[in-house]
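Blinded run. Sample ID left blank on purpose so nobody reads anything into the name before looking at the predicted structure. Input follows.
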Amino acid sequence: MTEALAAEVGVLTGPVPITATPHRQGGFSLFEVLEKTPEKPKPYDAVVKQVRYWWTKGEENRLYNELIDRLREKHAAQISIHEDHLAAMYDAAQL
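Blinded prediction complete.
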């Protein structure tokens, strides 16, 4: 992506390496930027819902982490962490 932003209009650019993913084979790409348009700020009405959503998510995460910290302090003697179960869950989530 940075190569496309740095490329000059009308100039064939590349080869640019393409990273392989589970759904895409890696390789190289050539491209030509046909036109550049200046980036404009989005209007307030177009972003207000996104800003509220992400602010709310951040607050939810902060409050959740505070709750977990308080519960860990209060019930420290009763908490046991099963690293093998966490590793298995992590591995299963990577599929």
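Unblinding after everyone has recorded impressions. Residues 2-32 form one domain.
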